[in-house]
User: What shape does this take?
Amino acid sequence: MSWYNYVIPIVTLLIGAVLGFLAGVYYLRKQMEKMQSDPEMLQKMAKQMGYNMNKQQMQRVQQMMKKQKFK
Assistant: This one.
């Protein structure tokens, strides 16, 4: 049994975790960019979280998201 029988799985795990994290961040940013222009998606997300927003609140949320830079 060599040292690489222990090192290769650990290195592979670390690389997979980093790549998975980066893919998750990329996906989340794309979803946030879509929500900026689609108020129905925002409304759906709010309802899933237990909030019921009126038009004024939706406009505020959209304005806040437009100020954020997701790129």
Notes: The chain has one domain: 4-67. The chain has a mean pLDDT of 86.
